[in-house]
């Protein structure tokens, strides 16, 4: 591809700044020789935190562009404690990001990157709006239930990792269609933004292998069984690019004792060192 910069999209609040710093540290370290640009869609992160975060990204050589979302853009959107405004950001990214951007890679902050992201970034979308992975082979029962529940034919995609064709999204994604779907089916949505994505755009999504690009860190035994023993720890370390810490148990919590806990703590320490090396807020250009 002509643009060798990987444009990362993230959406989070102040509480998720430390996990994001760990994720970005791992992405930069394990995608050597590649430039990154981070686009942050948010609605309530204080300016002081944004300035400090920008300084952190500067220590990694990564430009950060925070974009504050105007709540008037979501005047017609059903919003509640269950359906906060932020759930729409990744779905509406084609309309919220500059028109000069043609593709973007969305990553949840509860992710570690342990091998290069370049092959995913350069994936041809073959006319699709998105590329995403499903966790069906480690939990196929849930996949079947989701197909029935949402009346879809394709696998149930996880939206924690999304490669997006922004140009096509600007013509094919209609905010009012999303808002109307939430309005009409709100009581049926269990994972609101993910359910909406799968219902409206699942058929326009290119399947990518979750063992490589969205490995659910909870299910190491499931991946091992699925592969007849081939996806052992050495294989994961050599081949998996994205470890995703799905679910309520998060690796930055002291009580976390998952299989990849030590690996996460390693990058967490590196991120903390980078944060300590960040210049004082007063010396960082705004």
Structural Rg: 19 Å
The oligomeric state is: single chain
Alpha plus pi helix count: 12
- In the predicted model, the low-confidence regions spanning at least 5 consecutive residues are none
Helix content: 25-40%
Strand arrangement across the biggest beta sheet? 3-2-1-4-7-6-8
Distance between termini? 32 Å
By secondary-structure content and strand pairing, the structural class works out as alpha/beta
What tags apply to this protein structure?
286 residues, alpha/beta, 7-stranded mixed β-sheet, 3-stranded mixed β-sheet, 12 helices, 10 strands, 38% helix, 17% strand
Topology:
Elements: E1 5-11, H1 17-30, E2 35-42, H2 47-59, E3 64-68, H3 93-96, E4 103-107, E5 111-113, H4 118-121, E6 130-134, H5 140-150, E7 157-165, H6 166-172, H7 175-185, H8 192-201, E8 205-207, H9 210-213, E9 215-216, H10 220-226, H11 233-239, E10 242-244, H12 261-276
Helix pairs in contact: 1-12
How would you characterize this protein structure?
- The protein is of the alpha/beta class and 286 residues long.
- It contains 12 helices and 10 strands.
- Helix 1 crosses helix 12.
- 40% of the residues are buried.
- The model has no long low-confidence stretch (mean pLDDT 89).
In brief, what are we looking at here?
It is built from 12 helices and 10 strands.
